Predict the 3D structure of the following.
Amino acid sequence: MELPSACSHPGWSVLALVLGLLLWARRRRGWDPRKCPTDLTGKTVIVTGANSGIGKCVAMELARRNARTILACRSQERGQAAVEEIRAATGNPAVLLRLLDTGSLASVRAFAQTVLREEKRLDVLVNNAGLTGLPLAITPEGLEQTFATNYLGPFLLTNLLLDLLKASAPARIVNVSSFRHGVGTADVRYLTGQAQPGGYDPIYNSTKLMNVLFTAELAQRLQGTGVTANSVNPGVVSTRIMRHFSWAMRTLFLLIRPFIKSAEQGAVSTLYCAVSEEVSGITGKYFDSDCALALPSAAARDAGLARKLWEESERLTGLPAGPQH
């Protein structure tokens, strides 16, 4: 989901172009979805933010593998267009749209209630939806909008669907993070706007650190259930996530676009964690954009910080406090 947010240094355009060239030159061959035999007939999957970019590519591949594929999207129009495109491309009629705005806890609860009412199983949950480039703003529920969309909404959604995932085990949860988590901070006051990490870039980076911390703590709490949880870095990818930035930044994005990953390439690490045999039984890990296991930042490995974040997230989302591991 991601070209990282921009910095304001006047030499950024040159640096970004050089970075793009280096990333293109160093791109490594990783796991190839076309060589993976996994068939998902009889399985149900949910992909959030699936109307475009990485999410749509992930949903397309899961539908191609015969899964009942639920696209969780904010926009009825764009979501339905993606459903029709995926159905036509894969021949799979079991591709459905359900409306979800992860920035709204009320929307998350309504979506989860619909899933629990309509679906008999859930085998894969991909928390992909996210945004960046918006100014700090507080939602009607008292949450900072980017932190709500990128982190708290997925936290609540996952917890509301855990019983269905456990009943469908073995099942997998994949949380899309970013290499930018390494320069993020996880101050729980950010969630309600009581403190601010800075501009667009620090906000985005911090939400992605929270994704990794959440995944690690979730995996600990799911030990023995048959449900695994892993986080992934898609790499630097050409998607619509830059749409909220200025025209100058969007122009820069277009200049480096030939040298960065397409959405299809960016989806590979997420698909690897969702369907590959190699990841079966692996949980609580962070996978890099080439599908290799990687060590996340020191902050992302702080178990105490992960527990503190989890407990505050439970409080803010109104979830009952769960047992500690």
Notes: The first strand starts at residue 44 and ends at 48.
